[in-house]
């Protein structure tokens, strides 16, 4: 499972010009699910991202987590994070999980986040989405549950 985490001042996601998710200060997560991923991968990444110390403290140091600042979370599914661009010019998505199983893990990630973070919004699985954000910093991180060490 891969996530791109972006520290944001605000972020939103629309589907067919309809706002489906909107947050203020917090993190935007793009979530890609790989074949073989399971609840353990989701749990690991969720705990990691909500405790990452990527928000500034009073001294301007990145020393506070999403939980520390009572920040918000927007989760958007993005299978293209599993694109393999090593050969040719068209990405291959053979390592991306099948949609039905991927949707189950996407929903699990969101439901688990809602148990830990007061404000969690999400995009719509498999929809064509328009994502807008104001990246704060900018701070952008890539995490992969298969790269634990």
TrEMBL record:
UniProt-recorded Gene Ontology molecular function terms: D-tyrosyl-tRNA(Tyr) deacylase activity; Gly-tRNA(Ala) deacylase activity; Ser(Gly)-tRNA(Ala) hydrolase activity; tRNA binding
Short name of one Pfam family: Tyr_Deacylase
UniProt xrefs under CDD domains: Dtyr_deacylase (cd00563)
EC numbers: 3.1.1.96, 3.1.1.-
Localisation per UniProt entry: Cytoplasm
Leading EC class: hydrolase
Keywords: Cytoplasm, Hydrolase, RNA-binding, tRNA-binding
Major location (coarse): cytoplasm
Extent of motif Gly-cisPro motif, important for rejection of L-amino acids: 137-138
Any one Gene Ontology cellular component term annotated for this protein: cytoplasm
Gene Ontology process terms (BP): D-amino acid catabolic process
UniProt-listed NCBIfam families: D-aminoacyl-tRNA deacylase (TIGR00256)
Family affiliation: Belongs to the DTD family.
Subunit structure as annotated in this protein's UniProt entry: Homodimer.
PANTHER family tied to this protein: D-AMINOACYL-TRNA DEACYLASE 1 (PTHR10472:SF5), D-TYROSYL-TRNA TYR DEACYLASE (PTHR10472)
UniProt protein name: D-aminoacyl-tRNA deacylase
């Amino acid at each position: 499972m891969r996530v791109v985490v972006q520290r944001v001042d605000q972020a939103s996601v629309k589907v067919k010009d309809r706002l489906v998710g909107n947050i203020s200060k917090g993190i935007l997560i793009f979530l890609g699910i790989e074949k073989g991923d399971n609840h353990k991968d989701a749990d690991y990444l969720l705990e990691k991202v909500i405790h990452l110390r990527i928000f500034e403290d009073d001294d301007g140091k990145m020393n506070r987590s999403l939980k520390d600042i009572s920040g918000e979370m927007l989760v958007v599914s993005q299978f293209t994070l599993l694109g393999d661009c090593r050969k040719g010019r068209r990405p291959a998505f053979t390592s991306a999980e099948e949609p039905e199983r991927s949707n189950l893990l996407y929903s699990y990630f969101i439901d688990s986040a809602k148990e830990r973070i007061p404000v969690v919004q999400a995009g719509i699985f498999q929809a064509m989405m328009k994502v807008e954000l104001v990246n704060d910093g900018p701070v952008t991180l890539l995490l992969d549950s298969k790269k634990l060490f």
